[in-house]
Amino acid sequence: MKKNRIISVFVVLVLALILLGLRRPALASPLLQYTPFPTPTPGSDGRILYKVQPGDTLLRISLIAGVPLDELRGLNNLVGDNIVVGQELLLGLGGPSQVTPTPGPSPTSTIELPTPTPIPGAGILCVLLYNDRNGDSIRQEEEPSIPGGAISVSNRSGSFSETAPTETGIEPICFLDLSEGDYSITVAVPEGYNPTTATSYVLALKAGDETYLGFGAQINSETETEVDTAGGTSRSVLFGIVGGLFLLAGVGLAVFGTRLLRGK
Description:
Blueprint: H1 2-23, E1 47-51, H2 58-65, H3 69-76, E2 88-93, E3 122-131, E4 150-155, E5 161-165, E6 173-179, E7 181-188, E8 193-195, E9 200-205, E10 210-219, H4 221-263
Parallel strand pairs: 3-10
Antiparallel strand pairs: 1-2, 3-6, 4-5, 4-7, 7-9, 8-10
């Protein structure tokens, strides 16, 4: 009897323990702890590399880094998704990491050398007063110089002033060894001519220059008429003399012919 009580008590205790075990909530398995994802930065060559940490998967790295999974496989020549801890994965290319340059020494300003003064030299000026026969204000090769005119050349400083008369020909009047500076050139047209170009000019002559200037003039209508009239009078006198000689020769031939007939 006593033995049965002991068994009954044992059974009751076992049942009580079972009931208590059923009422206790089930313990959840611990969550998988991921290591922090370090922010990758570009290296000196521009590559962005990431070292695989414990608990990383290729999908996790793709989602966190913002790189598509297929692109991530292609950048690292991966066929599947298998990666190992410590493996370096290429996430892309970026600019090189910023390097703060070390300031160097301040440049020393160089001493400005004085500008050398140009060595004075000499130039040549040639001037021609030509007969502008066609009046186009452009000197032709066949248009000669006009005699009886004058060419004056002087510089602004007053150290040079010279006047030369014009003569018949085609060669200009040249002024040699002129010092560098500004020169005023003026021509005087002889009586009976009208200028067809400007009669004065200001020239900035530099050392080594050889400048040619041409001033044109054309005979005026009054002078041309006088010349033509004088030419016409001379021709009339000449033709009169020649006509008189022919007339005398004709009279002589007539007298000579008459004498010959009488002699017969």
